[in-house]
Amino acid sequence: MKPAPFVHHSPRALDEAVAVLAEVGHDGKVLAGGQSLIPVLNMRLAQPAHLVDINRVAGLDTVTVTDTHVRVGAIVRHAQLEKHDEAYAVLPLLRQALRNVAHPAIRNRGTTVGSIAHADAAGEMPSVAVVTDAVIEAVGPRGRREIAAGEFFEGPLQTVLEADELVEAVRFGRLAPGTRTTFVESARRHGDYALAGLGLAVDVEGAGADAVVRSARASYVSVTDIPVVVDLTDAVAGQPVSSPDWSAVEDLVQAAIAPEADIHASSDYRRALAAELTRRALTSLTTETIESTGGAA
Amino acid sequence: MTDLDQTAPATVDVTLRVNGVEHTRTVEPRRLLSDFLRHDLRLTGTHVGCEHGVCGACTVLVDGDPMRSCLMFAVSAQEHEITTVEGLGTQDSMGPVQQAFVECHGLQCGFCTPGFVTTITAFIAENPDPTIDEAREAVSGNLCRCTGYQNICKAVVRAAEITRERADEDGAR
Ligand SMILES: Cc1cc2nc3c(=O)[nH]c(=O)nc-3n(C[C@H](O)[C@H](O)[C@H](O)COP(=O)(O)OP(=O)(O)OC[C@H]3O[C@@H](n4cnc5c(N)ncnc54)[C@H](O)[C@@H]3O)c2cc1C
Ligand code: FES
Ligand code: FES
């Protein structure tokens, strides 16, 4: 199908985009990569009268790495962030997660910030946002505000963003030095939306055969309504890396998530899958020796 | 910034560079790039299967990178260089990917083929010597209802080979 007619606005500067959105936001939508919005328009699940296309707005296409975070502008494509070596060096979780976001052709156009604004519970980057304590930089007619990722998501496809606000950038927080991360998921085909998945950050103390887990945090994909951080520390703290026992993890994970059933999998299947993926992720992280160079935070 | 195009024209002039040639047409902003190519430019090599990004038949190259033309508006594609399957070779002078599809029987009905050809062209530009597993991964975002994919994966590896052979021939000349 084809989209219903709309007025296309193509601002070149951020203040212009904000001004347009202030006037039409109530009956308009921000258009970033369009990889979620255009399918919705094509299927006529939404018919906004205005689209504020931010692709030409100057200054939104940069990735900046600082001591405390990786700041990603609103028009940075998934593929651009995935290939960003400096961002990978300081926060490997970004690339680890992005490799699971759709297929390359979608990643070439879709934006990381757009996927966070879209707030799909099956999206990888919203879950990375919460587990890295990201900050959402929003701007609107009432000025700028910063929203902690943990307070940004309200429900499936719902955020605290007002209709006349747009996200200028997201700052992903760098993790403590030595934190090990991974992103694992299970999808019917690599690149499809996952049946379940998680981003995991593990802190290990000591080295070699004496190393033990100090703490672990995970955030899940497709098994919670909104991305939330599940602190696994109680179930894993003190486990020796050389011969860990993850049996306490299962109960903790299963209690923390509430998967919906759909045509692809039942709720129980997803619950069991999430627990198993958590165990596998923990094992891979505690047996691997690669460590992320953490930030100053 | 108050004159807010509530009265914006219902149509806009869109100028696109496709396969190296510039075209201007007057269309509605809601014109998808896929429809602009097919209906307005009559470049019907780009196929449309699902119109929500899933099948990959409509994949074109935007500045060399594969993207779904059904998930882009023509008006947004203006600053970019678009390459469609028509730009990747002709029947008499096939591009390496097209040649490989012929040799490996990588197509049956051919509906999905343009999307594969564009996707694989970009893939082998970055991965000149892929393994069969890498080839399978590279085409995982495109659907084919006929072939069962095995021959398409072989065609990816063969296309890379042909590309290298042709480069050697050019170098030797
Ligand atoms: C076939 C297919 C498979 C996919 N698979 C996956 C997957 O496995 N995992 C995954 O995470 N995603 C997947 N996606 C979605 C993809 O990641 C999108 O790129 C992403 O969800 C949205 O980013 P976008 O830039 O395309 O946003 P758009 O589609 O342009 O916008 C999405 C929504 O967010 C709003 N928005 C966008 N940017 C801003 C902003 N800066 N400020 C305020 N609001 C904004 C828009 O108004 C709209 O409501 C898939 C998409 C397709 C078509
Ligand atoms: S028609 Fe564009 S992906 Fe199917
Ligand atoms: S050859 Fe028929 S769909 Fe692929």
From TrEMBL, chain A:
Give the UniProt keywords, A-Z: FAD, Flavoprotein, Oxidoreductase
Domain FAD-binding PCMH-type: from-to ranges: 1-177
UniProt cross-references to PANTHER family, sorted A to Z: XANTHINE DEHYDROGENASE SUBUNIT C-RELATED
> Can you name this protein?
FAD-binding PCMH-type domain-containing protein
Q: Which organism is it from?
A: Knoellia flava TL1
Output the lineage of the source organism: Bacteria, Bacillati, Actinomycetota, Actinomycetes, Micrococcales
Automatic annotation (TrEMBL), chain B:
Q: Which InterPro entries is this protein grouped with? A: 2Fe-2S-bd, 2Fe-2S-bd_dom_sf, 2Fe-2S_ferredoxin-like_sf, 2Fe-2S_ferredoxin-type, 2Fe2S_fd_BS, Beta-grasp_dom_sf, Diverse_Oxidoreductases
Q: Keywords in alphabetical order, please.
A: 2Fe-2S, Iron, Iron-sulfur, Metal-binding, Oxidoreductase
Lineage, top-rank taxon, reads Bacteria
Write out the pathway annotation from the protein's UniProt entry.
Answer: Alkaloid degradation; nicotine degradation
> Which Pfam family is one of those matched by this entry?
Fer2_2
Coiled coil (residue ranges):
none
Question: What PROSITE patterns does its record include?
Answer: 2FE2S_FER_1 (PS00197), 2FE2S_FER_2 (PS51085)
A Gene Ontology molecular function term of the record: oxidoreductase activity
Q: Which residues form the 2Fe-2S ferredoxin-type domain?
A: 12-88
User: What is the name of this protein?
Assistant: (2Fe-2S)-binding protein
